[in-house]
Amino acid sequence: MATSIPTYQTLTTVQEFRKAVNNHFSKQINEGQEYDYGKTFDEQKAFRIFHETMTWRKQNKVYDMSTDLFPANYFDRHAIYFQNHDMNNIPLLHYVIRVFHKGQEDNEAVKRFITYNFEEQIRNHPGQRIVILFDLRETGLSHLDYDLIKFVVNSLMHYYPGLLAYMLVYKQPFILQAAWKLIKTWLPTETQNSVKFVDEKTISQYISLDQLSKDMGGTANDTP
């Protein structure tokens, strides 16, 4: 079973953190040589996103999440789990869609488990991005829950910006092609190119065989 998310020994206020950032990065900020804020800055949008994110974290008690919140089968069924790395040594978060059955899951609990995995990653490896590998083998319409996939996308765009390197969609069935075209539109235009559709022949362009499970044609251990 996965370990609990590490907790911090001290908390800080927004004011204290702002002061610490300004002091620590004063040269980069004041001289404008290393940090690029862009030519435009939508202050009101930034305030809104900050408020929504911090409110969401508070309402969902994200800071207090641990393995104790989830039944053992959430880890044992290997539906959402980290295992191995891509060609650039970026961690792979596997999302095995066939394990889920639309309408039979506690979606709120699954969302908390997704958040737990994101949160564990950023606390254990701050600044490191991830690849999400959507495994669509043996997947039909009864498995694909738009609510859960949209939560993943929204979380990456709003609550965990910068966490996603790219997405791999593995062995998409013909019956789900229209569905994934829709899902892709949920991403910002500049991010849509980060969705890569692969099969057993092309996935090795992103993941080496020693990091790819045997049932995907690789040589790695299949068990997380």
TrEMBL record:
Signal peptide: none annotated. Residues 62-224 form the CRAL-TRIO domain. This is CRAL-TRIO domain-containing protein. InterPro entries: CRAL-TRIO_dom, CRAL-TRIO_dom_sf, ER-organelle_contact. It comes from the Eukaryota. Pfam families: CRAL_TRIO. One of its GO terms (cellular component) is endoplasmic reticulum-endosome membrane contact site. Gene3D superfamilies: CRAL-TRIO lipid binding domain.
